Fold this protein.
Amino acid sequence: MSGHGADVKNSIWMRAVLFAGGFLTFGIIAFSILGIALAGPAHEEYLSAVDEYHHAEDDYHEAIVTGHSIEGDHYDPLYIAKEDAHHHEVEAHLSYLNWKVSGNTILVMSFIFASFIGIGGIINSLQPDAEHSDDEHEHHGSASPIIFTFGIMLFMMGFPGFANTITELLTGTDAVLGEMAIGLIGLLVIIIGVGNWWREDLPFNGHGEQIATSDPFEGEHIRKAGVWVFIMSEIMIFATFFSSYLRMRTGWCTKWAFDNGLENGKPVEGCVSQSQIDLFNAGEHVTGDVVMTASDYLRPGGAAGTGDFWTMLPGGINTFALIISSYTIVIALKTAKAHDWSRPDNFITKFIPQPIMKVVFPDQKKTVRNFLFATLMLGSLFIVLKLVEWSHLVAEGFTVSTSQAGSIFYIATGAHGLHVFIGLLIMLYLVFKADTVGYDEENAQGIEYFGLYWHFVDLAWVIIFPAFYLY
Amino acid sequence: MGDHEVIGLEKWLKDNTGMDIYFWNFLVLMFFTLFEIGAVFFDKIPGTDVEISLMMVWGILIVVGIIKGYGIGAYFMHLKGDPSIYFRTAMFPVLFVLLMIFGIGLSNPDGVDGLPSWCTPNWDYATRR
């Protein structure tokens, strides 16, 4: 394999720019199909559903005023027509959001991917070929941390406008893109900082791992130990989210807590009163002032009454996507480290047609790239579905500012989504390297160490998904 | 995910099925994820009249979480097979996590309402949520 060249030609870096063009093209095509061709008619249908609902509502209210209908009569044909129109309007809105948000998300992600890989490629291709040698790697001063930090400062300054515009994009309302300007400039500066760091310090070909010389990691690879210490700190961050959620959740009067209180016949302070229990025991239908959680909107039988198979689907697909992506990165690493690689031949591959096998497993180098790329695509699918799901929740009135439940849900799942997204940017580098220089036994540690991070992100989802979506 | 000796169950699976431990671990993870979603999706155990209660859902989610956590940590992250220092590093935050979950998550039911006044000088948030 070609993993041991002394320097990296500018032609290879220019390939990064081609990658960027590919991502942009894909993003524009996907946006044209999803965000325009499919979202356009869906938007028209949504607007006509809104009109129909308003007409049905007017007819119903007019009938009440003229005495043809009685307010509160749920069997009145006009009331039923109004409710049907309302359901149709909600469905049309969510259908429109599916296309619009997925189209917008793919476009924005493609733009960020293209910027990340394109700017990195341009910065590196500006160097003379001879300076790309990584064999002589010494300590040096660097402007990258300052550039990176400055970018984060700008991004944070522009974050309110950035978040506001994202919310508007998610809800399908007219977004003022100019409000994102400072946040986007911040992101651009961050990308330049990372690109510069890449140019200065990330050895493209890879060289010998540094070995720790003192306890407790003596004899171990320093980078691997570093990744584990980093994961350790990440565990603590997610533990704070989870314990905060648990603390709030055990204090909320959720529908489950309310129903349990009624069934057990024991009053719960601030949730179920003795009089409500008495009414319940007398066979009355008792309702309470319950706190709505995300799972109330998403799971079947949730308090909001909107949950069904389809609302659970994005979260379910995302769970499988992360698990599959954990496996694809394992295959990529295994393939890269294989001493004498050959196309897999087992009881599963026997059922796969040879032309497909040849595309998926062409040779060792391209197989590594293919599986890393599959991981990238699965992670991207996670982000797209996550935002589609968020847009539905926002449209149904469950926002970050609705309640503590909304706040902790978006903070925890948003922090996790951010981890996935940062992982995707790192994966872009891995895919690019796999496609150009290639991975082999000597330099596959990059996949291994990134894999640890990616598995951790999967592990965090193993806890977040049941806690926030299912329970 | 590092290099290691293939022994025990891993070797048995490889020898008898031709597929490595990662593949079987992947299948186990997929199966239990399906099981987890099914537990929430169905009101009753399919084919029976047994209702899936809240406690049953809790139990399933916790047990499945432990199994999936083990599968990912032990095999995909390769804590089983790597030098023990990595396992010890991964376990280092356990004390913190337990402290957070039991000390904050599952206790102090009054939350901010129960804080003494010297903790909340001129701060009315303690009385409104």
